[in-house]
Amino acid sequence: MNHIIKYPETHPLTWRLDTINKNPIWINEYHKKNGYSALKFMLNNMTPKDVINLVKDSELRGRGGAGFYTGIKWSLMPKKNNIPRYLLCNADEMEPGTYKDRLLLEQLPHQLLEGMIISGFAIEATMAYIFLRGEYISAENNLKKAIIEAENCGYLGRNILGSDFTFKIVLHTGAGRYICGEETALINSLEGKRANPRIKPPFPAIVGLWGKPTCVNNVETLSNIPAIVLNGSNWYKKISLSKDRGTKLMGFSGRVNNPGVWEVPFGISARELLEDYAKGMKKGFRLKAWQPGGAGTDFLTEKNLDVKMDFDSISKVGSRFGTGIAMAVDHTVNIVSLVLNLEKFFSRESCGLCTPCREGLPWIVKILQSFEDGFAQNEDINILEDLCVQLGPGKTVCAHAPGAMEPLQSAIKLFRSEFEQCIRKNSFSNIEMINKKNMFKLNL
């Protein structure tokens, strides 16, 4: 919302944005807007342990989707020794419908770099990588320029600003795999291996990149760090409206009047986000369902719009907060067709490591396709429900398959009649059914 006046105290992530021309904030303007002040303050006044304790006290949660507490994650790194350790910035933003990190990467690259330098100091790393989604060309170019600017100003490199702290950042662009958003698959990909997730434990904090202690944080998470260092943990807690602290980039897409992403405090309602920020549904369209945080989250309906947008509240109504970028589904969309499209994506992006995921997702796509093509039978709904269990949590190494089941299981639960209508609409005799299935096989 352009008419909202943004202050550093109320919009720590986006107050520096050029809201008129949308230009990136380069080093000179970043300096004018208090940029790198947090880094200078930290180097003169804080130890690594102080920074970790501050972030733990702020109760900052990871913004990539899982919501793990950042300070606790940092404190899991082993005590300093002579073994190299790494900070990885997960910028492989490939969740369908999610575009929040892109805003920060393209327009506020120095804010991310400052957050990374402070985070590297906290975990006593000397080397960091940004794993960037390959399709983010503008972000790649802007980050390259920002890294050079930061190096020229002495914020990166040896003995930063005269201290004994040395830190280097390398930009790495991915090759376009959704599974690289999973932290251990990201590590494997960075090592030049196939991007399969690793079995945990051991966790990356103990055995990470090239077998060394490694911490992986999301772009938005790291971009929060400078403001916390400058303003303190109490301030950070107070700007939230819920027990999840701070602000969050949230958004709405679909047939809404003003799709976009906005920085808002945790705890505003989904209705406020849809009606005040996204300006409601377009004329002639009604809200049928919505996903609160990406393609891999359960559908909710209009009756859930007054829920608070935070991790626990969304969980209590049967979905996940995820990335916080919601998608509106209007009344003209057939839910079976929508879920088929989503499951095609998840099936294509499976790394193939685990049998339930590798074999189950294509099977689900074939069954959903049979609903579309007119030869699904009543028992197919039961098979889909059974597959939701077989591909659910605990059945695979990573959360890819369980995430893929969330839209399917909620679609059957909330809109079962639409699945049944596909069957009734296409009720054939046994002979017609056999002929139709044979035609389908030939078309394959």
Automatic annotation (TrEMBL):
Record flagged with keyword Iron-sulfur: yes
Listed SMART domains: NADH_4Fe-4S (SM00928)
Alphabetized SUPFAM superfamilies for the sequence: Nqo1 FMN-binding domain-like, Nqo1 middle domain-like, Nqo1C-terminal domain-like
Cofactor annotation: FMN; [4Fe-4S] cluster
EC number(s) recorded for this UniProt protein: 7.1.1.-
Catalytic EC class: translocase
Keywords in alphabetical order: 4Fe-4S, Flavoprotein, FMN, Iron, Iron-sulfur, Metal-binding, NAD, Oxidoreductase, Quinone, Translocase
NADH-ubiquinone oxidoreductase 51kDa subunit iron-sulphur binding domain boundaries: 336-381
Catalytic activity annotation: a quinone + NADH + 5 H(+)(in) = a quinol + NAD(+) + 4 H(+)(out)
Keyword Transferase: no
GO MF annotations, alphabetized: 4 iron, 4 sulfur cluster binding; FMN binding; metal ion binding; NAD binding; NADH dehydrogenase (ubiquinone) activity; oxidoreductase activity; quinone binding
Summary of subunit composition and partner proteins: Composed of 13 different subunits. Subunits NuoCD, E, F, and G constitute the peripheral sector of the complex.
Annotated function: NDH-1 shuttles electrons from NADH, via FMN and iron-sulfur (Fe-S) centers, to quinones in the respiratory chain. Couples the redox reaction to proton translocation (for every two electrons transferred, four hydrogen ions are translocated across the cytoplasmic membrane), and thus conserves the redox energy in a proton gradient.
Similarity comment text for this entry: Belongs to the complex I 51 kDa subunit family.
Name of this chain's protein: NADH-quinone oxidoreductase subunit F
